[in-house]
Amino acid sequence: MNYEFFSRKRMRREQRFVSRKGAKQQSSIRYLLLLWLMGAVACQKTGFSYDNVIDNKETDYILTDTLSVAMKTLQYDSVPTSGSGLLLIGNQSDPYLGAVTANSYFQVIQPAAIDIPVNGSGYDSLRLILRPGGYIAGDSLQPQSLQVYRVTQKIQFAQTFYSLYNNSNFATESTPLGSFTGIIRPKTDKTVSVTLSDVLGRQFFTMLRDKSPDITAGPNFLDFFRGLKITPGPGNASLMTYLAQDTALTMRLYYHVNEIVTTAKYVDFKMSAPELQFNQITANRSGTPLEKLVGPVKELPSAATGNMTFVQSLTGVGTRIDLPYLKNMQQLGQFFKIMKVVLTVYPASGTFSNSSQIPANLALCQIDKANNVTDTIGYGSLTIDNQYNENTYYSYDITNYCNTQLTADNIAARGLYLTTPGGAGRNSLDRLVVNDQQSPKKKIKVQVYYLLYK
């Protein structure tokens, strides 16, 4: 019998939990227990009689928070990032998760039929118009640097797949079409304008004016111009979002027509195929607790990462939690029943300065032995301590999970997995650092409330 999950001394102290309650409350609990035991008579153990449960006062309602927890950080190679509605572009360095670079790919489509006079018209400029999405990881007071490249390979899903991923890649020209450097205020600036190559601009203008088949016949244009890739430029130290919608992301060609007066005009090549827009994410973990989580290494126990685990969905990082001694609790007495189990996850102290740096929502999932997510248990109720950040935590009711795992065989056995729900964490660098049970404070906690007849 393995009693590693709590000491005998702690158990004796916790078993006095009920005795300190009022007699009325204890009587109610014993009455409910008696009803439960009567209903469970069909599966009672040999030699057990429930006739004297209350008289002998051998039934306890116990709370323990010393159940052992095993934790690992997992790395998934591929994270779907297509069709999110946002471009992620920039660099950001984090002492726990490493240096992250975000690039974005998308296609544009030719404008509807347009008549440009052959005589008296002229090209002015070609610009990429971006609209900030309001999010930034980094310092918005520092200049942002962007570079725009022409894609030379068709952007498409791989065979049998319906998403593009953080590690998807398509070839581009080696020289950028254009670049931008300047201050971008993500919450107030309406647009960012990037000047593109005049060589390409004049080519587009001529094709539109002369109604070239490559720009007037539907699918021909995507064979001629396969799309754009935006990357952070040299010295860029922040990551920002930009809207990826046909009304918000355009390549705009400016031209003029000389009539009685000169008229300035423009035509838009709008973003198309939103399902093919995706963000390419790379992470360099050198010098961080996760620097060994590379190549064939897909998981690291918390003992190998400073008694911490990590969650950052955008880079494919999540936390696995197992309760290795849960089943041993059944050996405490003849009859044992879990009444409630609460998992509390605290962001590690000193790893965040305000609640906007940690995920607003955190999903708790079931995960099999091969680290495949099989189901979602629930979403953490985030309690925020805005004053001190000391009592900020996520909590989960895992009662049903624990009761199921008490009788699960090796095939049906499941662990727990912390990640951000759906695509919520794939549009930001929000991350979570969690202390394991070896840490002196703000460590993960499992509270088990159970009934025990000895």
TrEMBL record:
Q: Which InterPro entries match?
A: DUF4270
Top-level lineage group: Bacteria
A Pfam family assignment: DUF4270
Q: What is this protein called?
A: DUF4270 family protein
Q: Which organism is it from?
A: Chitinophaga qingshengii
